[in-house]
Amino acid sequence: MNRPVKALAYTAESLIDFIYPAVCFVCRERIPLEHRIICPDCWEKLPRNTHNVLASGDKAISAGKRWFSFVAWRFVYSDEMRELIHHFKFNGFSRLRYPLGSEMSETVLGHQELNTADMIIAVPLHRARLRERGYNQSLLLARSVSEHTHIPVIEVLERIKNTLPQATFETAEDKIWNVRGIFTVKNPKTVQGKRIILVDDIFTTGATANECSKTLAGAGAREIMVVTAAYAG
What is the pTM of this model? Predict the structure, then answer.
């Protein structure tokens, strides 16, 4: 009795693909429905941090203390990567968490400092922004990395102020000011003495990651290490 239902579902999916064909946003070629946005060839061509280099983040943080140890990233923030993350964050392509998270986990597993961490914490969204977007892309990435590394995700960091998006500001100083004091730790005992991987989608000025790290360090975290899908610092 299930066969007609399956056939109907398959037909509907085929009809959607016929009316709105899946096209790779890079090469503009049609792609299988399960890929939806980028073809396997273009995915493999995305520039990566193949040598698992770590960045201090000092260049990006123009003033004040750096509260995290280093930044580890998987992809270079190329034009293609910028558009891909835009689709991931704003256009509902939440399934990109699987390939992005899988690649980020390779970076984590490739560094002893990272693969021995006690927990993973995602950069949080304010509840108003979460309602608007429907999901926190950083938390989706964190959960995907956790599935591959078996390092638990702990949702203890909270964003208590709904500020303007960082892209609204041009200078690093304004971005630092925009995120100052906007995070809190709901249960400080959870992070006391712990080595933490802080996950976000992009590292640019480092203002958000540094403010998160400052909050976690203030709650007693032993060390914070930042892992992102892309790095533009």
Answer: 0.86
Measured distance CA(119)–CA(15) in Å, rounded? 44
Q: Which CATH architecture has domain 46-231?
A: 3-Layer(aba) Sandwich (3.40)
Q: At 23, list the tokens.
A: 């096209």
> CA 215 to CA 12: how far, in whole Å?
49
- Going residue by residue through the chain (233 aa), what tens digit of pLDDT does each one get? 455 544 444 444 444 444 456 889 999 888 876 656 899 999 999 999 988 889 988 766 666 789 999 999 999 999 999 999 999 999 888 999 999 999 999 999 999 999 999 999 999 999 998 998 899 999 999 999 999 999 999 999 999 987 766 666 666 666 666 777 789 999 999 999 999 999 999 998 888 999 999 999 999 999 999 999 999 86
Report the distance separating Cα 206 and Cα 176, nearest Å.
Answer: 9
Q: What one-character DSSP code corresponds to residue 63?
A: S
Return the domain boundaries, the chain: 1-42, 46-231
